[in-house]
From TrEMBL:
Pfam families: cNMP_binding (PF00027), HTH_Crp_2 (PF13545). CDD domains: CAP_ED (cd00038). Keywords: DNA-binding, Transcription, Transcription regulation. Residues 145-218 form the HTH crp-type domain. The keyword Transcription regulation applies. Residues 11-131 form the Cyclic nucleotide-binding domain. The keyword DNA-binding applies. This is Crp/Fnr family transcriptional regulator. Gene3D superfamilies: Jelly Rolls (2.60.120.10), Winged helix-like DNA-binding domain superfamily/Winged helix DNA-binding domain (1.10.10.10). It comes from the Bacteria. It comes from Cellulomonas alba.
Amino acid sequence: MVDDIVLTAPLFAGLDDETATALAEAMKPVEALRGDVLFHEGDPGDRLYVIREGKIKLGRRSNDGRENLLAILGPGEMFGELSLFDPGPRTATASVVADAVVMELAHAELVAWLKDTPSVAGHLLQALARRLRRTNEALADLVFSDVPGRVAKALLDLSTRFGEPVDEGVRVAHDLTQEELAQLVGASRETVNKALADFAARGWVRREGRAVVLLDLDRLERRAR
Ligand code: CMP
């Protein structure tokens, strides 16, 4: 059975229902638990993935062992395609943050699909361009924004994908530990913690373990600018 959420991935954009379903059926579901690693940075890559359930983090490790998270992805998002378009090793490690089911497609199979349905290529390019925009923005934030600003932005970004409306605002079950949140923001755990405690003291957020309730979106948005 093919889930609607999988069909929202850029891979399927612009395909008619029949073609999209046929492509989705060529993919193999893989179940993975929190902490599992789907592949490591530097591995040879021969397949890409679309997330059906759960959350995946993409991270890189420095020579001295520090980790930086490039992205947290959720249902309907795709990863593992760079090593196809630019043949070479995996550019990041993909690990499971919340128990996941991912749909796997061999690069070779995608290449065959691209030959038959070239419109898929345009949508994949658009997805890559969108990612480059986001990465440029994150790079500029690292240079120009302070840590609280980056924390506010990360929470808002996570809320667009993992947020659900509740009476008081938006609850974001990000499933990240404090360490992972710090790696996503590119700062130490202590500094990120301090920013979150300050937001909580101001009544902008409430922390609930691996979730956070955003209580004042306006103030957070202003802080993120
Ligand atoms: P690949 O290099 O095959 O394996 C790691 C994957 O992480 C990569 O493909 C992309 O799908 C994904 N990735 C790499 N950099 C980023 C980024 N800056 N933002 C989101 N995803 C990324």
